[in-house]
């Protein structure tokens, strides 16, 4: 009994919704409203522009200076290096290997530059101009891979302490 009553109520509601959707729509009013909304305005008044203020032109004093975010030179094998600073300011023949430091398995080579400064270099770092990469450091020798000649191939060179 309850089920029949529930089905009857639902059918009545569905019939009411269907009949409400079928009533005559007032389409003329909708057409008028759309025409008003889409019609161009005939009474457009010009908008006053703001006053143009002329500002002084500022000169950036460091425009021609070197950018700290850009490298000076491109190294070989994807490595980049700066020119004219540290060991890159000297040729490989001007540098003198004066010693090797070690702590555990890590080693550093000590190079003396012609200007009297002492530089500590680890394996894999670049030095000299043209560039040379420190390939290996042992207790008594440093193996360098340097670019030599016009073909720009890596050429191995061994420097020993006290030579």
TrEMBL record:
Gene3D superfamilies: 2.30.30.830. InterPro entries: PilP (IPR007446). Residues 1-25 form the signal peptide. The keyword Signal applies. Keywords: Signal. This is Pilus assembly protein PilP.
């Amino acid at each position: 009994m309850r089920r029949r009553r529930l089905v009857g109520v639902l059918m009545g509601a569905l019939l009411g919704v269907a009949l409400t959707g079928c009533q005559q729509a007032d389409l003329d009013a909708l057409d008028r409203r759309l025409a008003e909304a889409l019609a161009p305005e005939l009474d457009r008044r010009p908008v006053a522009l703001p006053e143009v203020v002329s500002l002084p032109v500022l000169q950036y004093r460091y425009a021609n200076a070197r950018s700290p975010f850009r490298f000076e030179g491109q190294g070989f094998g994807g490595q980049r290096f700066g020119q004219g600073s540290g060991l890159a300011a000297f040729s490989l023949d001007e540098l003198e290997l004066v010693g090797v430091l070690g702590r555990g398995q890590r080693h550093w080579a000590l190079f003396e530059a012609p200007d009297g400064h002492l530089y500590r270099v680890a394996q894999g770092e670049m030095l000299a101009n043209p560039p040379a990469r420190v390939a290996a450091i042992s207790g008594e020798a440093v193996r360098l891979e340097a670019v030599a000649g016009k073909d720009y191939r890596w050429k191995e060179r061994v420097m020993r302490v006290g030579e």
